[in-house]
Amino acid sequence: MTRLLLGNLESGTTDDEIRGLLARYGFPPIDNIEHLGGDGGTEAAVLKFQGVNPDVLYRLRTRIHEMHWKHRKITAQILTNNYYG
After folding, report:
1. Which of 7, 46, 47 is nearest to 27 (CA)?
2. DSSP secondary structure string, 35-83?
């Protein structure tokens, strides 16, 4: 399982909005989305992809990392087993 952490999301961003954004940029279907609360009105989400090679996801993340979306500059990071269980 490969995981992608999307950070600095606007509070209240829905799963459908996240799925739509990633689909527009060529990402494979997301198997699970877990929202993480934040402070100051920002949130993060961990996206799980079954059977997706981490190298493929790493290349795709460059399409959205530090892009402006919903009035925020979002971040995208691949999570390894050393982070977030």
Report:
1. 47
2. EE--STTEEEEEEEETT--HHHHHHHHTTTTT-EETTEE-EEEEE-TTS
Does 35 map to a domain? yes
We report the CATH number of the domain holding residue 50 as: 3.30.70.330
Range of the domain at 13: 2-79
Residue 85 has pLDDT above 80, yes or no: no
Among 46, 71, 70, smallest CA distance to 57 is for 46
pLDDT digits (tens, 9 = 90+) for 13-72: 999 999 999 999 999 999 999 999 867 667 999 999 999 988 999 999 999 999 999 999
What's the total number of domains in the chain? 1
Structure tokens at 34: 């877990």
